[in-house]
Amino acid sequence: MEPAAAKPSFKPLSAYRPILWAGGICGVLDGLTAVGLTVLAGSTPVRLFQSIASGVLGQSAFRGGLSSAGLGVVLHFVVALAAAAVYYAASRRAALLNQHPILSGALFGAALHVVMTFVVVPLSAIGPRPFVWSGFVILLVVHIVVVGPSIALTVRHFAKVERRQR
Description:
It is a single chain. The protein contains 6 helices and no strands. By secondary structure, it is mostly helical. Helix 1 runs antiparallel to helix 6 (133-165). The two termini are 29 Å apart. 28% of the residues are buried.
């Protein structure tokens, strides 16, 4: 007799709700934080989202007006959804992530910021850029306080809902 096959830790069709909610909440909170910091720094939200679009379009994003800013908004949410998907998948393999969502989220946010800064952005059309400690630390704090915890807390909420439905 063959041993029973191990059940997958999550059902792909049930994953869309927590990922969409976590990515959406993260995208909104991070976007509002970014807009606030951008305005405080003397720039505009359009310029902020054009800079995100420049990851795909390069410098031409800054000549694209509202259409490239709109692309930047879409890309911002794509990144938030991708981060939520990664965290969701990890949380299904490591229950500790749902048991300690604030700490796990803060660590995830920090790791995400490091990967975005040193891997994703340099490999994008933006390319390598000068490292500025003050900017790095400010965005690290945003990722530790806003990005990671918003994803982790939302994913944990859906994990509790899944357990109640069983």
